[in-house]
Write the structure tokens for this entry.
Amino acid sequence: LISVYNCLYQLKRYEEALVVLEELIYDYPAEWEWRAKKATIYGEQGKFMEALDEYAYLITLAPYQERKRLTEGYDELATVFTKKLIEDYLITDARKLVEKWLKVHPSSEQGLKYALSLSTQMKDYEAVKKYAVMEPEKKDIYHIIKLAQVHHAEKDYRKSLDLLSPEITRNPYHKDLVNVHSQVSEDYAKSLILSDAYEQGMVLIDSAL
């Protein structure tokens, strides 16, 4: 059966290969890696959700000492699928996939970055806030910028600058950070000037230059 599966897979006769895999899984239930091959075939067929479901189930079956390695494999698979959906402009599908991804591996750095990026693109600022605070360890600049952009969009300029200003001190040449900081400072200054806080607004503009 193994040689039959290998032959069918090489020939890209995926439906037939899946039938053989089901037999192998039935005959050798302890050989959990057959499910990894099943997930791979689903991925080749463009059935990305099914592939992740299969791989997630595989992780629960594997010995404890293997789970870290398999979770990393899950991340790699989810990254490939997410990139493909984004390249095909299937943004809603990509976001649904990322949501599934983070249910299996909530602390995935790559998964969180995709979640932030896609939520920002869809202007779902509540989701951006949720994902921005999910980072389990020290937040990187990417997370800070995204959260600052949410506060900016909500016209909460002070909160945005409170996040950005310390990072500017530490990373004065980070292009995205500098650009966002400048834009927030400019908009905050305009709002101050319009509210008759002219001098405070001008000071803010000078500090952003």
Summary: Residues 5 and 19 are 9 Å apart (CA to CA). The mean pLDDT is 87. The first helix runs from residue 2 to 10. The two ends are 69 Å apart (CA to CA).
